[in-house]
User: Which sequence fits this backbone?
């Protein structure tokens, strides 16, 4: 019996050794077949991963790298995996550094323009005063006495300069809304016109008055008054060019957001492309709903799931090309496409059902919380003034009763990234302070609002890029298309000219509205 046991143990050890040797032999054989298997895996990757045709596939480099790896590569290799919504490369880093340099250049350009405008404005206001004071300082004894008309001109110059100062402050000294890529052409032309105008007045004043030391002081004051009158007319011209010219609508622009296709229409007047882009951005933050990239991931995940369910196997060996696999992939995708609309329909119906369910729970929870606030207010009126709660404390007291329902609803509608707990508490305390209803409180969360409604740090894009085939300083024309790009999406703007409308008049004679009622005398018996 012991011999049998020894024989059995020997047989089991042999079988274990033979299995191990077979496994080792199989591994060695698979190692010799590794180029063939790599080609098969590479062909599968070439089907499922779409890469530009000009760039080499990742599988080629990976297969060459795996051929040179040893058996212990897993112990000395660190693999980092994960998903990211945005990626960055060396080109992106270089572009970001270039954008920073451009932003520094824009700041310098803006301050340089403000400095030039301020110096020129100071020169404009000091010039009439200098025209009047210089003769009094340089040759006062030789001047003719200033009569009543001359003294009246002093008052005229003072009030005209005051009016010009107020008008200039109202028109030019405003908080800048944006940094435009190019200068404003009309404003630059006005500055050049003012400089040439003041320079010509100074040139005439130096040649005809300073050199000759004119003694007619009333004529000198009249010369300063004419300068102030001309400056007032230039200010009127600036109002027409900068403000009134663009008020009449001449073009209709269609703004489309590239990611979800949301669009709006606006009417614009005679504007340059860069100023029209600024108007579009101002209206975008007010009219467009906030951009929510989480709503776009459903279709992407659905398409990825459909493509992941398709696999192509290479049964003919590595010598076969990938064209047959591509045809098989397209045929399989076509067969699955026939049933994909049913999946889409049921997914959307299930999502709408869950949203309605969460919405109903949220409405009930908020109504109960506001009812509790009313009871608290009735109780607080009976307490001492020192024991009453402020709106912030009341909001913190009722917020836990609605927090779970609100959190689930925001997650279902994918709005949780736009509403922090602090912002919800502030909105709740605001509604309590102003005695608003539960429906008014829920309006912000049930319906996606405009971009300005949310926290500035969550939606505000610090820099937009204007892409246009035409010069950005040129005016709007029929058929022009330009694009406003930011980090996550872009706005495509299509310009159409408002057609010429011809109305005609048709006169209707008042007598043509008279009618005659005819009655039959005979009746049937």
Assistant:
């Amino acid at each position: 019996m012991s011999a049998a046991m020894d024989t059995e143990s020997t047989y089991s050890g042999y079988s274990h050794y033979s299995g191990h040797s077979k496994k080792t032999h199989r591994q060695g054989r698979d190692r010799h077949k590794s180029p063939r298997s790599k080609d098969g895996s590479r062909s599968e990757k070439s089907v499922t991963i779409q890469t530009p045709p000009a760039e080499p596939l990742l599988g080629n480099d990976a297969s060459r790298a795996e051929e040179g790896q040893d058996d212990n590569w897993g112990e000395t290799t660190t693999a980092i995996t994960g998903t990211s919504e945005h990626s960055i490369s060396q080109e992106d880093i270089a572009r970001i550094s270039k954008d920073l340099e451009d932003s520094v250049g824009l700041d310098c350009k803006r301050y340089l323009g403000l400095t030039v405008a301020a110096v020129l404005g100071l020169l404009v206001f000091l010039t009439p005063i200098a025209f009047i004071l210089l003769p009094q300082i340089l040759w006062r004894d030789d001047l003719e006495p200033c009569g009543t008309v001359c003294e009246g001109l002093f008052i005229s110059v003072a009030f005209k300069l005051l009016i010009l100062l107020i008008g200039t402050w109202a028109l030019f000294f405003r908080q800048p809304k944006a940094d435009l890529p190019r200068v404003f052409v009309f404003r630059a032309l006005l500055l050049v016109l003012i400089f040439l105008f003041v320079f010509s007045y100074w040139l005439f004043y130096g040649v005809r008055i300073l050199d000759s030391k004119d003694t007619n002081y009333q004529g000198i004051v009249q010369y300063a008054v004419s300068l102030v009158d001309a400056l007032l007319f230039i200010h009127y011209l600036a109002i027409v060019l900068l403000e009134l010219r663009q008020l009449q609508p001449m073009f209709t622009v269609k703004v489309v957001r590239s990611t979800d296709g949301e669009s709006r229409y606006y009417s614009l007047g005679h504007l340059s492309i860069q100023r029209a882009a600024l108007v579009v951005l101002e209206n975008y933050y007010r009219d467009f709903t906030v951009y929510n990239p989480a709503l776009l991931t459903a279709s992407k995940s659905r398409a990825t799931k459909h493509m992941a369910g398709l696999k192509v196997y290479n049964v003919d060996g590595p010598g076969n090309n990938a064209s047959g696999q591509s045809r098989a992939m397209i045929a399989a995708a076509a067969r699955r496409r026939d049933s994909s609309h049913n999946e889409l329909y049921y997914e959307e119906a299930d999502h709408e059902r869950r949203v309605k369910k969460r919405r109903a729970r949220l409405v009930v929870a908020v109504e109960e919380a506001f009812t509790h606030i009313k009871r608290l207010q009735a109780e607080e009126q009976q307490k001492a003034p020192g024991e009453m709660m402020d709106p912030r404390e009341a909001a913190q007291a009722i917020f836990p009763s609605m927090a779970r329902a609100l959190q689930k609803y925001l997650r279902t509608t994918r709005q949780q990234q736009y509403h922090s707990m602090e912002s919800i508490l502030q909105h709740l305390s605001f509604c309590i302070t102003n005695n608003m209803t539960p429906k008014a409180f829920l309006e912000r969360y049930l319906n996606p609002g405009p971009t300005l409604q949310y926290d500035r740090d969550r939606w505000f894009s610090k820099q937009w890029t204007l892409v246009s085939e035409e010069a950005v300083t040129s005016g709007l024309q029929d058929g022009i298309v330009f694009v406003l790009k930011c980090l996550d999406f872009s706005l495509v703007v299509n310009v159409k000219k408002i057609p010429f409308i011809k109305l005609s008049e048709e006169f209707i004679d008042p007598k043509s509205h008279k009618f005659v009622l005819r009655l039959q005398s005979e009746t049937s018996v």
About this structure: The chain has 14 helices and five strands. The first helix runs from residue 2 to 32.
